[in-house]
Amino acid sequence: MTVVRWAPSPTGRIHLGNARPALLNWFFARRTGGRYILRMDDTDLARSTREFADGIEVDLDWLGVKPDLLVRQSERTALYDTARDRLIAAGRLYPCYETEEELDRKRARARLLGKPPIYDRAALSLSEEDRAKYEAEGRQPHWRFKLDGRPVQFDDLIKGPQTVNTASMSDPVLIRADGSYLYTLPSVVDDIDLAVTHVIRGEDHVSNTGTQIEIIEALGGTVPTFAHHNLLTDAEGQGFSKRLGSQSIADFRDQGYEPLAVAIMATLTGTSLPIEPFESLDAIAEKLELSMISHGAARFDPTELNGLNARLLHAMSYEEALPRLTSMGLEGEAIWLLLRENLVRFADIAELSKLLTGPVEPVVAEEDREFLALAKALLPPEPWDENTWGQWTGALKTATGRKGRALFMPLRLALTGRQDGPELKSLLVLLGRRACLDRLP
Ligand code: GLU
């Protein structure tokens, strides 16, 4: 069975860029009948909060993703400690005592000498006494993983064969001086422990993958299959930032967008599939393969979101809309079918429905007064149906010689007070004769 995980750090609410891996993992799990784990990467105690973690759950649920399991790294420290001890015993994790300033100086010196600023592994040659001396000074060690320094190769399901040369990287710090874990080790330990088969995440993690494959191997775990997707950027080509709260999923929800529209934008942008309505997340999952994700940029276009949201609403059945219509006191299939055509966001219907219920401020141009008076006189008797509009305007055309815009627009402006809006043919029937007489001057 396939097992995937989406692993947000709860240091803010999620944005569109985070929704991309959240959903791509979901699609993969659905396509393969696999398991989806939501993993809170909350080892950074200073920046992670339970409130953000709860918010992420709410956002994910709103998008339509239902995880099979939720784990919090903050509750799994014992596992990481065990892995830590094994790596230390295997000589792959070693204590370092340099302060930030000392490391800065080392890097500056390397740059002056024209060398890459890679950690020089000085701590590897410290003796027992050296360490005891540092600790007596009150220095606590941070711990680095000793890289193999050989090229790590893997077949990426999106990017194809990849090589990460860990020889050009500093041995990564896995444990901070205060004993807390950085992201790298807990992620690997959890992936092994939870038997994750596929890691689908942003391409900013490709070099981490090189390091993590080495750690997995050092721990005797099975290396999962990796897929690194392009990152979503905003319309200006900038990455979305959690801390700025720009275009968070919660913002889109509050602005009244359909979750499906947001999900489609978050995942189909920057793929070979066109941005278009889908019936459900499962329908996208059936169609979108990882290989369709492009290697180039994925730039989010907010105007495309509006268009897509509108198209989803225009195709929405009455049954689907009903719960929300009921809560707004707007039941009636004919009303929905008429008004949905003009919606960009669902909530627009509250304003649009006033075209039926009033009050409407008719707009009447002086030069149309006579024409509208005639229109009023020629308004057919009830009962009305979809043919009434044709009969009425046909009679008006014969009587006045007006046609096209000159014929329809004064009627629209008088009946609705606006230049655009729902189809008049159907609106007329729903309005009824009494309301039309009231609105015509
Ligand atoms: N917490 C990491 C992130 O948000 C997870 C990366 C991963 O999927 O391994 O970038």
UniProtKB/TrEMBL annotation:
Residue window of motif 'HIGH' region: 8-18
Any one GO molecular function term: glutamate-tRNA ligase activity
GO cellular component, one term: cytoplasm
Residue ranges of every copy of the Glutamyl/glutaminyl-tRNA synthetase class Ib catalytic domain listed in the record: 3-306
Domain of life of the source: Bacteria
Binding site for ATP: K242
Aminoacyl-tRNA synthetase class I anticodon-binding domain residues: 334-440
EC number: 6.1.1.17
Enzyme class: ligase
Catalytic activity annotation: tRNA(Glu) + L-glutamate + ATP = L-glutamyl-tRNA(Glu) + AMP + diphosphate
Chain span(s) of sequence motif 'KMSKS' region: 239-243
Subcellular location: Cytoplasm
Gene3D superfamilies: 1.10.10.350, HUPs (3.40.50.620)
Purpose: Catalyzes the attachment of glutamate to tRNA(Glu) in a two-step reaction: glutamate is first activated by ATP to form Glu-AMP and then transferred to the acceptor end of tRNA(Glu).
NCBIfam families assigned to the protein according to its UniProt record, in alphabetical order: gltX_bact (TIGR00464)
Family membership: Belongs to the class-I aminoacyl-tRNA synthetase family. Glutamate--tRNA ligase type 1 subfamily.
Binding partners and assembly: Monomer.
Official protein name in the record: Glutamate--tRNA ligase
Gene: gltX
